[in-house]
Amino acid sequence: MIVPPVPPEEAALNALRTFREAMALGDLSLALALVDRDATLVDDLVGAAAADASRGEVLLELRSVLAQGLEVEEQSQRVSLPGGVAVVVSQLVLRVVDPEAPDPVQEMDGRRLHETVVLVPTDDGWRLRHLHRSLVPESP
Questions:
Q1: CB 115 within 8 A of CB 133
Q2: Closest Cα partner for 72 from 126, 16, 137, 28?
Q3: Mean pLDDT of the chain, nearest integer
Q4: Residues whose CB is less than 8 angstroms from the CB of residue 118 and which lie 6 or more positions away in sequence, other chains included
Q5: Whether residue 139 has pLDDT greater than 90
């Protein structure tokens, strides 16, 4: 059986979603394998810890936050392919999935995140080169 090729937009989006799922499940090996060696990771969920941290340290810190009972849910996304890279702009929402989560995590329920990801094609598939997540300010 011949499998038709996956369009590049879909392949890049699949790589990003696999990364998010790996982080949610705690599969840091898979998540790190989907991150380019020269990647920049900036995530408000990790905060200041990401400033001087390695890719692996940022992922460990992010996993620590998620493991407290937090889930990231995709609300919308746009994919574009400028200059041979994929740019995915997503709107995410945080959901508390553990009723025993600490108060700071409980307070995150329903918060929105803007996410911008740049993925580069490699011989092994698409890899995250840049990830930036920002918490949307809460309305007064």
A1: yes
A2: 16
A3: 92
A4: 85, 86, 87, 128, 129, 130
A5: no
